[in-house]
Amino acid sequence: MSANQLLPSPELSWQATKADVLGGQAGMVLAGPWRLMLLGDGSPTRHFQLLTGDPVEIELIAMAPEPAVQEPGAAPPPLEIAELEGPLLRRQVWLRCGRRTLAWAESWWNQQQAAADLQQREQPIWRSLTSHRAELFREVDGLALVDAPWLEERFGEPGPFWSRHYRFFRGGKELTVIREVFSPALKQWLGPDRTGAA
Known about the structure:
With 198 residues, the protein is of the alpha+beta class. The protein has 7 helices and 7 strands, in the order E-H-H-H-E-E-E-H-H-E-H-E-E-H. The protein has helices at residues 18-22, 32-39, 44-52, 111-117, 125-130, 149-155, 187-190, and strands at 11-15, 56-65, 88-97, 100-110, 137-147, 161-170, 173-182. It has a 7-stranded antiparallel sheet with strand order 1-5-6-7-4-3-2.
């Protein structure tokens, strides 16, 4: 795969309704720490660093214009990307702490906005957007279970994997839509992902 080729979005196995996510009713099967990680409005990159004691490193997979035609078998993008002004750019990364890959993420941007906000491509989005202490609002819009062979290979475990997507707003305007997929390796710090699991 070339250095700037987008991976197909992981397939959805299950997805919560947006009403349940916004109303705090989604993911009731999740254990408390996992509910906070997936449905809270905090920064996962900051959480990863706090949990592991290691800085978060970004491994850039691709940063390319959003394809006009969706790849067969790929999950559709979140509906919220319709709120972004085109033309769109998609960025995909692995998030690592030390040698451990803890998440995969993709984000959609207006191309001009990306040029302004993502000048350091290897830097976590949260760090890029808050480098000038700009105020941001994060709204979690989706919770899902997803799967893809390349996720299983990288995470070293079979799927499906917990995923969420959310939007960043600045000054009341949608800035970006981000989808994250979390590695089961997080159980080392968060414990089992489901209530009642051993």
